[in-house]
Amino acid sequence: xxxxxxxxxxxxxxxxxxxxxxxxxxxxxxxxxxxxxxxxxxxxxxxxxxxxxxxxxxxxxxxxxxxxxxxxxxxxxxxxxxxxxxxxxxxxxxxxxxxxxxxxxxxxxxxxxxxxxxxxxxxxxxxxxxxxxxxxxxxxxxxxxxxxxxxxxxxxxxxxxxx
Length: 163
What we know:
Elements: H1 11-23, E1 29-33, H2 39-48, E2 51-56, H3 59-67, E3 72-74, E4 91-93, H4 104-115, H5 129-136, H6 154-160
Parallel strand pairs: 1-2, 1-4, 2-3
Helix pairs in contact: 5-6
């Protein structure tokens, strides 16, 4: 059987996907909030043997995900995750989505309810971010960086070992 190919137009998205893939334990139950077209979930299913579920607001992206065989619910994350049972996932992924929600604190609390723990790391200077992440992260942790400007370079520094 030929290898599956995934088209990722944005090289930063490919880097973020790789960081997430490397952190998710094989065979885990994964919920991706704001899953888009399901690209990351497909890779988690195919490369890591994960049980997957997506939630996406945009109808066209929901249809794309379904065409890829990704189970996805069309829902607004600002309305909560009430339909998701407590502790039903090992990982809840929120990649490049938190800045889109109106009630981020509520969503983070819901993620904690459905998938375990969240440990935020705050730094005074962007230069301190990679070192702070490395000192706080443990095996199995998924790291989310958010902000503006030069924060986009943080994942690359972590992967390349420039810290």
